Amino acid sequence: METVKAFTRLQSAVETQFPQFAGRLRPPAPFTVSWAERPGAEQVLSLWSATSGEPDEGLLGLCAGYRLLGPHESERERAKWVDLMDGSGLDAVANPSWDNSISLDPNAVRAVYFAAGWVPVLRRPLEADYLAVDLVPLSGGRPGQIVTCGRDVEEKIVVAPDLATLLTALSEECTAGNWAAQTVETTKTELPFLLRQGQDLLNACQDRTFPPQ
Questions:
Q1: What gap in Å lies between CA 123 and CA 56, rounded to an integer?
Q2: Residue 177 burial (CB count, 10 A)
Q3: pTM, 2 dp
């Protein structure tokens, strides 16, 4: 249950630092996924037993400017890649000839555009870029490791060994005062979000400045 403890700690940090965001995450709801028995999947299931993520409307991103995805939104994001996939099941990958993906951890994570075994948990708002739980690691990796992936992420790396480590690092940043409340205007409304001071979260992961080593 380390994942749930880490999530609870992150939720408490957000609500303490930014009371206006208290109670904004959705409660857990029933869901089923085809990959529930895969090694590394249990941490995602634990997270989703505690929350269904951010609401579809009214928020832009509560985790350092990124959206915390629940099961239905995560599965929708994975489904966006189906038409590019070759193979079947979780072994399917999107590896088009025009893609320039490389792996900076070549023994641990695949150098492909997207893999069916990558389960997005944090999403860059309005984009198809993610931090994902990797259920199909290479021999030098571990099931459940956190990886960077998505449309604009050519360099795939291992960010953290598991989801609890990632969530704990986020809660420590929030508690340290490294996030700020912001809003962005749309044609219809203003959407609040929590911005990470300094580098964008994915960029910091790519530079290996987050999580702290």
A1: 13
A2: 9
A3: 0.96
